[in-house]
Structures are given as structure tokens and as C-alpha cells.
Amino acid sequence: MGSSLSNKPRGGCCYHSVFTDEETEAQRSSCLPSRIQALEHVRRSLPELAQHKADMQRWEEQSQGAVYTVEYACSAVKNLVDSSIYFRSVEGLLKQAISIRDHMNAAAQGHSPEEPPPPSSA
């Protein structure tokens, strides 16, 4: 009565137990339609699954390209921000150069550097 060999479900439609060869063959035959149905389902699903896989790979490549583009753009903006001190320095030097040029032009025309040159009457 307390035998460990009982007819317990093993999975699917098949049972695992001690059967005669005829019983085992009959049991395998009864599982055959469900196995064939599962194989047919897989066969019908494969083209769609392959297309989904190809789509996902293409989207992954596109998204990786977009991520690279965004990272590159962010790096460029950071470099510009980091360069702003140099731009301000160049701006200051240009203002000094313009001021020196104006003073030199005024001195060449016989005016004192503090006096602005007379307006040109062109």
C-alpha cells in the first residue's frame, strides 16, 4: 500500500510509472497528437519569431547609434562650456587690441588719445 511506485503525473499528458511494454507504448501513442500539435505550433511561429528577432536587432543597432550621437553631442557641448574661459580671454584681448588701434589712429591724426577723433564727413 505504501509503495513509492504510483501513477503520478510527470508533465504534459504522460505519466511515469511501472507499466508493461504494451501499456508504455499505448501511453506514448496517446501523447503523440499533443506533441505533433506543439511541433506544428513551433513550425508556424518560427518565421514570425525570426522577423521579431531581426526587428529587435535592427532597433538595438539604431538605438546604439542614437546613444552614441547623444553622447558625442553632450561631449561637444561640455567641451564648449569648458572652453568658455578661453573665449572670454580672447574677447578681452580683442577689446584691448581695438582700444590700442583706436588710440594709435587718434595719435596718428594728431589727436590726444583721450579725445575721440572727429566724426568723418564722408
From TrEMBL:
Recorded superkingdom: Eukaryota
Cell compartment(s), UniProt: Lysosome membrane
UniProt keyword terms in alphabetical order: Lysosome, Membrane
UniProt keyword annotation of Membrane present: yes
Residues in coiled coil: none
Record-given protein name: BLOC-1 related complex subunit 8
GO biological process entries: heart development
A cellular-component GO term for this protein: BORC complex
Keyword Metal-binding: no
Protein family (similarity comment): Belongs to the BORCS8 family.
Source lineage: Eukaryota, Metazoa, Chordata, Craniata, Vertebrata
Gene name of this polypeptide: BORCS8
InterPro entries: BORCS8 (IPR019320)
